[in-house]
Amino acid sequence: MTRFATMLAALAVLAPVGIGGSAAAEVIERSEDHFVLRYASAMEAPAEDVWGAVGDLPLWWNPDHTYTGDIANLTLSLTPGGCFCEKLADGTIFEHGIVREADPELGVLFEAALGPLKGKTTLARWEFGWTGSGGEVVMSYVVRGPGLGAFADAVDGVMQDQYSRLIHFIHYGEPPSDEPFAWPSTEGLKPGG
Out of 1, 64, 68, 171, which could bridge 180 as a Cys pair, Cβ 3.0 to 4.6 Å? Predict the structure, then answer.
């Protein structure tokens, strides 16, 4: 079993979800310099549907969490080294994250310092894992860097929004149309406080 498969198997047992498709979402670990987020939901969809939905990230991603405000500018290649990228107005390509491992049966591992975390992390590991029909879909985000524990709640709010959009997309084939969550301002936020 690869290291990636072992990590995904561990994610699946960290915090079991309730019966009937209920979801678990929380900050499961936090300190001054790191935090770990985990979201899980029971899922009837087969692994290939979940793989396809994650690969269609530009379709379900909340456009409020882009620099251009338009999901049409997002791209994702689900291959090792593939980029979760955004084409900016001046034509440059902004890298939100890089795919490190991808397996249609198990999940996807990104290195991705998202939003205000860009340039501040020493580690930003974003994972999607699934256990197939009747199992669960798990998303986790592990972030380390000086003072970044202070960002846990704000990032949790955004990632819960993205995860719920993914689950909705898996179930219905389209993102929800509800009001999007907005990043709280991090201007003036001092590391560690």
Answer: 64
- DSSP annotation of 21 reads S
Residue 94 · residue 67 · CB < 8 Å: yes
In the chain, what are the helix, strand and coil shares in percent, each to the nearest 5?
30, 30, 40
In order, the DSSP letters of 86-140 are EE-TTS-EEEEEEEEEEETTTEEEEE---GGGTTT-SEEEEEEEE--TTEEEEEE
Q: Report which of 148, 158, 157, 132 is spatially closest to residue 192, judged by C-alpha positions.
A: 148
Name the β-bridge partners of 99: 110
**Residue with the larger pLDDT of the pair 189 and 91:** 91
What separation in angstroms does the CA of 111 have from each of 39, 40, 47, 63, 117?
18, 20, 22, 21, 12
Give per-residue pLDDT as tens, 19-58: 234 456 789 999 999 999 999 998 888 999 999 999 999 9
If you search the block for the tokens 């979201």, which residue do you land on?
A: 39
**Considering only CA atoms, which of 166, 168, 180, 112 is closest in space to residue 138?**
166
Average pLDDT of the residues in 166-170? 93
